[in-house]
Structure formats: structure tokens, C-alpha cells
Amino acid sequence: MVTHGSNFVFTLYSTIGRNRQVPRESLPFLMQSLSDYKNCMKALESVRKHLGKKIRSLQWLIFPAVLENGIRNLPHEILSYIFELCHHSTVGCDFALRISQVSRRFRQIALQTSMIWTRIAGNYHESRFRTFITRSGIRELEI
């Protein structure tokens, strides 16, 4: 390792100046310092790679919880609006059923969002047909 300390190297560097003439007696020390600094850089790079892997693993691990926490903090009205937007951007009649089965909260919000129940398939059984009509309220139906 460095015997004189890193301050010595920088002091020596500033005395050498622009002409870059290194005193002969300092050359072995400077060569050793250069080698030590390169080894430190390799060690730091190894630590950086290791920490990068740890960070990516933790991000991957907590991502679902972060999303869930974010969704949990959204007001019901915002989720209801999102459900309506999703309903309008999908084709078919399954969105309302699928979103209402995600969780208790999603079911509660879906049941209160009449817009998503307005699209009814012609091949629904009578009970499902009536359920959709009831949940859609006074909105126009799309059959």
C-alpha cells in the first residue's frame, strides 16, 4: 500500500508541474502508488457491480409491493375513472367481470362504476344479463 499517503502523491504532483519531470528517487514510490490506485479502482468496480446486482434484486423484489401500495393510496374516484378508461379501451364484455375479481376493493369500486357494466354479450345467460343491466343503472347498453 501507499507508504507516504495519498497527500504526498498530490503534493509531489503539484511540485512536478507542467514539465512532468519526476525526480528519480520518487519514481518507485509513484509506480507503486499507481499500482495501488489501480487495484483500489478494481476493488471499487467489483463493489459497484455487486451493489448494482443487490439494488436490482431489491427493486425486482419490492416492485409489486410498491405498485400495490401506490394503488392502495389512490382514491376510489380515481380508480373508478381508470376502470372507465380501461373499459373504453377494451373490446369485448369481460373487463367488468375480470376487474371485479381482482380484490375486494376493486370489486367494491367496480360495482359502483356503472359504466363498465354497459357492454353485454348476446350469449350471456339470463342471470348474468340481468346482473349487468342492474349494475349498469340507467346507462345505455351496448349489446
UniProtKB/TrEMBL annotation:
| Family matches, as InterPro entries | F-box-like_dom_sf, F-box_dom
* Top-level division of the source organism's lineage: Eukaryota
Q: Which Pfam families match?
A: F-box-like
Q: Which residues form the F-box domain?
A: 68-120
Protein name as catalogued = F-box domain-containing protein
